[in-house]
């Protein structure tokens, strides 16, 4: 069963109390130490990658900066070897269950790519750079393994993951149909108008498809399609139609869909936080390599029972820490204050407008020769007395 299938069980009060105790007793400490090690390794990776990309020969370490790069790369290599060894041990221990966790695959594949850089660099092959690039990307994406436990970052990571798995495939499917229809009709129209050589970006079917993707990504035309350097009537009409469909209709639908996804994830953020912590505790309990040398955490930290007089209050404080609640209330107060300030400014502008109209009316009455004009009290002259002083 997947983690999502256990959502109702994990959110039960008894399970939440167990998660709270395990999280505070051993899981948080283990999680924070692993995150600190990953941050250090990521810094070493960045230093090595940036300095290696500026070196004419990455196998030489003669300059001071290149010596720093060598130290960073060797330290990072130790972490990569340890990560790969741990992943292999986990495969040996859990077998096919290992591959059910996407972050396990991310750690395994990224370490393999980074280890492949070594023989390519020794042989001075240029293929080391694309392999290094893929390994750098996959290794850095492992940060989402640690972001899931934080309240705000966890929401963003869940939104990003859901967008990549659910929203983008639907959008890309619809866009692919429109793109193929546009590219085929556009290349035929250009062939009929003998305009395939007007722009290199639209000289054949595949170039037109790539141009369509660029138009969607950049949100604007990427070439001159109208005027002396543009296309003729029917081809220009097809281009305008595609621009309207991709830049206006499809992008608007995508934005609305992403907004709806964020609202759904945000509304279920607390439950997702519980699930993420349960997932981390499970990894700490099952994926530790020290179990052969010492008792597992679930045995060493086991107690027969724990007397809790008010479990609801304990869970409430754990789910919503006091400082988090205070920050949320302060944010709400600031938003209300900004809203009231905006309304007061609008009222002030309207009062000034009414005052100007009253002045114009009085001036008109005097010009008409009225013997006496009424006394008018302008809004800006009204003084509100303090009720305590009355």
From TrEMBL:
<feature type="domain" description="Ion transport">
    <location>
        <begin position="35"/>
        <end position="269"/>
    </location>
</feature>
<feature type="transmembrane region" description="Helical">
    <location>
        <begin position="171"/>
        <end position="190"/>
    </location>
</feature>
<dbReference type="InterPro" id="IPR005821">
    <property type="entry name" value="Ion_trans_dom"/>
</dbReference>
<keyword id="KW-1133">Transmembrane helix</keyword>
<dbReference type="Pfam" id="PF00520">
    <property type="entry name" value="Ion_trans"/>
</dbReference>
<dbReference type="GO" id="GO:0098703">
    <property type="term" value="P:calcium ion import across plasma membrane"/>
</dbReference>
<protein>
    <recommendedName>
        <fullName>Ion transport domain-containing protein</fullName>
    </recommendedName>
</protein>
<feature type="transmembrane region" description="Helical">
    <location>
        <begin position="71"/>
        <end position="91"/>
    </location>
</feature>
<dbReference type="GO" id="GO:0005262">
    <property type="term" value="F:calcium channel activity"/>
</dbReference>
<feature type="transmembrane region" description="Helical">
    <location>
        <begin position="103"/>
        <end position="123"/>
    </location>
</feature>
<keyword id="KW-0812">Transmembrane</keyword>
<feature type="transmembrane region" description="Helical">
    <location>
        <begin position="231"/>
        <end position="256"/>
    </location>
</feature>
<feature type="transmembrane region" description="Helical">
    <location>
        <begin position="31"/>
        <end position="51"/>
    </location>
</feature>
<feature type="transmembrane region" description="Helical">
    <location>
        <begin position="129"/>
        <end position="150"/>
    </location>
</feature>
<dbReference type="GO" id="GO:0005886">
    <property type="term" value="C:plasma membrane"/>
</dbReference>
<keyword id="KW-0472">Membrane</keyword>
<dbReference type="InterPro" id="IPR024862">
    <property type="entry name" value="TRPV"/>
</dbReference>
<keyword id="KW-0677">Repeat</keyword>
């Amino acid at each position: 069963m997947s983690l999502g299938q256990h959502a109702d069980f994990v959110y039960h009060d008894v399970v939440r109390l167990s998660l709270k105790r395990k999280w505070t007793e051993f899981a948080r400490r283990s999680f924070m130490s692993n995150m600190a090690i990953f941050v250090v390794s990521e810094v070493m990776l960045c230093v090595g990658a940036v300095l290696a990309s500026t070196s004419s020969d990455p196998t030489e370490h003669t300059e001071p900066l290149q010596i720093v790069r060598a130290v960073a790369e060797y330290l990072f290599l130790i972490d990569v070897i340890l990560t790969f060894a741990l992943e292999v041990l986990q495969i040996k221990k859990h077998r096919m269950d290992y591959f059910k966790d996407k972050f396990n695959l991310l750690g395994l594949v990224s370490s393999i790519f980074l280890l492949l850089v070594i023989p390519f660099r020794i042989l001075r092959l240029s293929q080391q750079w694309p392999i290094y690039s893929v390994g750098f990307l996959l290794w850095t994406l492992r940060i989402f393994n640690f972001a899931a436990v934080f309240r705000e970052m966890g929401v963003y990571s869940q939104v990003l993951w859901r967008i990549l798995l659910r929203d983008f495939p639907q959008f890309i499917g619809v866009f692919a149909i429109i793109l193929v229809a546009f590219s085929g009709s556009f290349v035929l129209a250009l062939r009929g108008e003998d305009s395939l050589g007007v722009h290199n970006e639209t000289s054949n079917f595949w170039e037109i498809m790539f141009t369509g993707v660029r138009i969607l990504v950049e949100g604007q035309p990427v070439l001159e399609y109208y005027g002396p350097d543009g296309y003729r009537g029917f081809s220009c009409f097809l281009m305008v139609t595609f621009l309207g469909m991709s830049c206006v209709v499809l992008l608007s639908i995508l934005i609305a869909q992403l907004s709806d996804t964020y609202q759904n994830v945000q509304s279920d953020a607390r439950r997702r936080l519980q699930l993420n912590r349960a997932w981390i505790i499970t990894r700490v309990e099952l994926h530790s390599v020290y179990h052969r040398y010492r008792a597992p955490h679930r045995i060493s930290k086991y107690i027969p029972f724990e007397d809790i007089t008010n479990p609801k209050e304990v869970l409430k404080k754990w789910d919503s820490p006091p400082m988090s609640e205070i920050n949320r209330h302060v944010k709400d107060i600031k938003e209300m204050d900004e809203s009231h300030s905006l309304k007061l400014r609008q009222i002030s502008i309207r009062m000034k407008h009414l005052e100007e109209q009253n002045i114009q009316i009085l001036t008109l009455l005097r010009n008409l020769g009225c013997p006496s004009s009424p006394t008018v009290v302008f809004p800006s002259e009204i003084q509100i007395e303090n009720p305590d002083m009355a």
